[in-house]
Amino acid sequence: MLDTFKHPLFKRELDQIKWPTLLMAIAILLPILIAINSIDPNPSQYSWTMDSIDFIRAPYDLGGWLVLPIFIISQFFYTRKESVIGLLASLPYDRNTHITYKYFAGVIGIILAYFVGFLVIASTYFSAGHPITGSFSPIVIWLLVVTASSLFQYSVLFFAATIMGNSIFAGFGGFFMFYTPVFILGSVFMNLDTFFNFYVDFEPILKISMPHYIMYTGAWYNKTSIVLMDFMPMLLLYFIGSMIIFKLAQKSFNKNDFEYNGNMCMFIWAEKVFLVGFTLCFGFLGLDFAQTFQSGWLYSLAVVIGFACFPLGFILSKKLLQVTGHQVQFKRS
Amino acid sequence: MLEVNQLRKDIVGRPILSDIHFAVKPGCITGLIGENGAGKTTLLKTICGILRPTSGSVSFDGHNVFNSPEIRNEIAFVSEEAEFFKYSRVKDLLNWFGEIYINFDTEHFHNLNQRFQIPLDMKIQKLSKGMRMKVSLMLGLSIRPKLLLLDEPTTGLDPSSRKHLFEVLMREVADNDTTIIISSHLLNDLEQVCDHIIILRDGKITNNTSLDALKSSIKQIQVCFNDYVPAGLSEIPQVLKIKTLGRVAYLTVEGELEETIQSIESMDILFWELIDMKLEDIFITTSEAGESNVRHIQTSAV
């Protein structure tokens, strides 16, 4: 373990994420501090339960959707830079070592950032005269659940970054790669119901595909006790999911051909997936928009435009690939 | 010994390198030359394991180089871009390399720096292109590599540093039997240090020979005619290129000279003289001959 921390690659990776870690810690701390300050000072009304610490959801959002992409961009910035990858790839380490240290440096950074948040809540809890009463255990559960879910999201983005040749695309577009199939399936079911009166229950698919959805909708707001009781399986789900995705990331990075660095995708097959995914998403977004109209000619027009979004999405994705795809490589090589 | 066996590298299905096959003995300095886009950088990057070969293999001392960490300890690659982590200081890089490479020689780095004078406290982003190249060279040489791959190492270097670099390379070969491959467009510099030349053209090796053999295979003959340069000169089979200046013709000739000289002497000439060609002239001539595949006649007014 100590050897890991002394490893030059690991030290470099830690150095790479020091500022994103600080940013994440701030993103976690800010809503916590605001929420703590806004708690009603009447002790009889508040106990330290999941219901009363709704603010714990906030860092999850901020950290997940805003800071994690920055995390990934800074981690993969040099790896995807043509002039620096030569140096990195010529070092006496195999690719597995590179990607493993990179991943675990990120994991350490995220755990550290959440731990800072935990320390602040804990110190508030133990500070004399604070109005919060009740068990300390929800705070620990909060730390475990939000850290695990954040690590899961990080793993998804990390995997995306090993498939994509541009760290910015990977950071901000990585989530789409994971949630696009769910969105497309959801849209298909919704449109089947709208146009053909054929109802399919989407809830189970959503729960399977998005573990944190359980936390958000199934338990987070309505059934608080479920979160407290079921957090262990949830943690296990996150852990196994993260490990599987990390293994996929290792395999993907090992298959990377660094001459494609800078392209949107490192693999030609990924470009084809992007083409199909973008086309379908764009089309279904158009159809979803059409359904905001109730009826009449405006609705008919919106439906026509909605269907037209499919070929439009195809053309747009084609154009995007012309600029950032493998075809560009001919000009560069 | 470096062995490259039937190497092929495709990018998006297009062959960038094909049928690359050569071996380099220890202590040999090989010059890799070719026009822009010939595949020199791709070849060097594939040799040191940065790029994955599409087919074929690269082995050094019997070990496959790609994804083989142990053997990479003995290989240094100095890239033309010579870019590092912009916000690192030179001394941080020095320490980092020291931790990574088993044989890293910090003392050697400082010795080299006495000549190159790079401030160790400076951040990489503050260094000029030439200074970055010097840092890259010093780090590469301090690894004490058995195989040193240099991609346009003279980029941004002033003449004095260039001279010093080549002195260092010669010493490296003499002291440590280091195998060096240099890719450069400054052929006059290469000519001074290389003992072997590989010429790449459209991703294929067109010449793989010792510098001496290459220079003796292509010569220039200066012929002075009594009256005028006869048209029949271009009919001589070995002639690659003819340049005329009044009654004087300069013939670039490849292969056996005897037959060419006999043909020349049968003409109405005043005298003829054999001239050694520089590597740069040989490269230009062979490139032009390869491009047009016809003999080239160039006439200049007196």
Defining key terms:
heterodimer; A: 333 residues; globular; B: 302 residues; alpha/beta; six-stranded mixed beta sheet; elongated
Characterise the protein shown here:
The complex is a heterodimer of chains A (333) and B (302). Helices cover 77% and strands 0% of the residues of chain A. Chain A has helices spanning 2-6, 8-16, 18-38, 57-76, 82-90, 95-126, 137-163, 167-196, 203-209, 211-220, 224-254, 268-290, 296-324, 328-332. In chain A, α4 (57-76) packs parallel to α7 (137-163), α7 packs parallel to α11 (224-254) and α8 crosses α12 (268-290). The relative contact order of chain A is 0.10. Mean pLDDT of chain A is 78; it is low at 43-59 and 213-227. In chain B, 34% of the residues lie in helices and 32% in strands. Chain B has helices at residues 40-47, 69-72, 90-100, 106-116, 129-142, 159-176, 187-193, 211-217, 257-265, 279-292; strands at residues 2-11, 14-24, 29-34, 55-60, 63-64, 75-78, 147-151, 179-183, 196-201, 204-210, 218-225, 239-245, 248-254, 269-275, 296-300. In chain B, the strands form three sheets. Chain B has a six-stranded mixed beta sheet with strand order 6-7-8-3-9-10, sandwiched between helices. In chain B, strands 14-11-13-12-15 form a five-stranded mixed beta sheet, sandwiched between helices. In chain B, strands 2-1-4-5 form a four-stranded antiparallel beta sheet, with helices on one face. The longest helix of chain B has 18 residues, at 159-176. Chain B is elongated, with a radius of gyration of 23 Å. The relative contact order of chain B is 0.14. At the A-B interface, α5 of A face α2, β6 and α3 of B.
